[in-house]
Specification:
By secondary structure, this protein is α/β, with parallel strands linked by helices. It has 14 helices and eleven strands. The chain has a six-stranded mixed sheet, with helices on both faces. The protein is globular and about 65 Å long.
Length: 365
């Protein structure tokens, strides 16, 4: 028996070490690799993020006063924590960490993160689940004095800020009218991305860009900044991408989608309700956006002195906002097709968006 025990003991230790190493291997998965496990307990505190900006997501803004999400999740036994942030250098790392269960953020923040081309953070741990807001135009193409029409852009360099792939997709819709396309999809028009707006404008001023894509809200200031430049077109001229263009979406973390459908349903039902309430109280949204920016700079950043956007300017920007829970699935699919064709990602569409929960909630209404 002693001899048998002497043989079995090392074997037992070997299998114990082996099983431990296998468990350690399972625990060392990357933070963005999340598997489905319906036995997992849901979180007690639901974290929802949004961006402090002049045209922030209306559902999050109206909740600052109405507390619709606190009530809905509270009735189901959950707490709600709101996280306000700003800038891709801030929101990206928080997404990579998995900080948010749900998040409202502009579409290009997410797309650069999803394609893993952002210099700040990247991952595949969030999906688009609903719309938030849309705009009729969104951006314009500003060109230097040597360009008079679309065909003049052949071989030229166009600057795009913040890896804004939806802007590049829209640009290609306009370029196609002159038989042109960007190099990323087999054409001759060069595209260069720049993350920082001040440097972006400086590159245009110095002639390194022949044209730039700029926000339409900046149009009144661009003539002062670049007196020799001119607007050639709006990126959605002719309603190339539809009557409106999504500007922000609602996202869910993948493990929430896969493991806790009840949480998804509460979020989406409340999101739809908040959309209607925001529309009813649209006149209040510019003030709430300004309040959110003040809170972010004072309480989160700790800034004492910062430049404020005049409330009149914020109000003007909100005049064209379309408040919606509809993500515009056709636009989503077209954007995914573009980033795939351009070689920015090889991930499947199913990792980009999942609208099955939204459709299920709407069918119950």
């Amino acid at each position: 028996m002693k001899k048998l025990a002497a043989i079995l003991t090392p074997l037992f230790l070997f299998f114990l070490i082996l099983s431990g190493s296998l468990l350690t291997g399972c625990g060392s998965e990357t933070k963005n690799t999340i598997s489905s496990n319906t036995d997992l307990e849901p979180p007690k505190k639901i974290t929802i993020g949004y961006i402090a900006m002049t045209r922030s997501s209306p559902q999050a803004l109206i909740n600052r006063e109405k507390e619709l999400f606190e009530k809905a999740f509270g009735d189901a036994g959950y707490e709600v924590e709101w996280v306000i942030t700003r800038g891709r250098d801030n929101v990206g790392p928080l997404m990579e960490e998995g900080k948010f269960h749900f998040l409202y953020t502009p579409i290009n923040n997410f797309t650069a993160y999803f394609t893993e081309t952002s210099q700040f953070a990247a991952g595949d741990n969030y999906r688009i689940i609903a719309g938030s807001q849309a705009v009729p135009e969104g951006s314009i193409l500003l060109v230097n004095e040597s360009i008079s029409e679309l065909k003049d852009l052949d071989g030229k360099v166009i600057g795009i800020v913040n890896n804004s792939y939806s802007h590049e997709m829209l640009l290609n819709l306009q370029l196609s009218k002159a038989g042109l396309a960007t190099e990323t999809v087999g054409g001759t028009v060069k595209v260069k991305f720049q993350d920082y707006l001040a440097e972006f404008y400086e590159l245009f001023r110095n002639g390194e860009f022949d044209a730039i894509i700029a926000r339409d809200t900046e149009e009144p200031n661009l003539s002062k900044r670049f007196p020799r430049a001119k607007k050639l077109l709006s990126l959605n001229d002719g309603k190339a991408a539809g009557v409106t263009i999504p500007s922000a979406w609602l996202y869910a973390r993948t493990d929430v989608l896969e493991n806790w459908p009840d949480l998804i349903e509460i979020m989406l039902k409340t999101h739809i309700e908040a959309t209607a309430v925001a529309e009813e109280n649209k006149k209040d949204l510019p003030r709430l956006a300004a309040d959110t920016l003040d809170y972010y700079y004072r309480e989160i950043v700790g800034a004492v002195d910062y430049e404020k956007t005049p409330i009149e300017e914020i109000t003007r920007q909100w005049d064209e906002i379309h408040i919606t829970y509809d993500p515009d699935e056709e636009f989503v699919k077209n954007l995914y097709t573009f980033i795939s064709d351009a070689g920015y990602t090889n991930k499947p569409y199913e990792e980009f968006a999942d609208f099955r929960p939204l459709k299920a909630v709407l069918e119950k209404k």
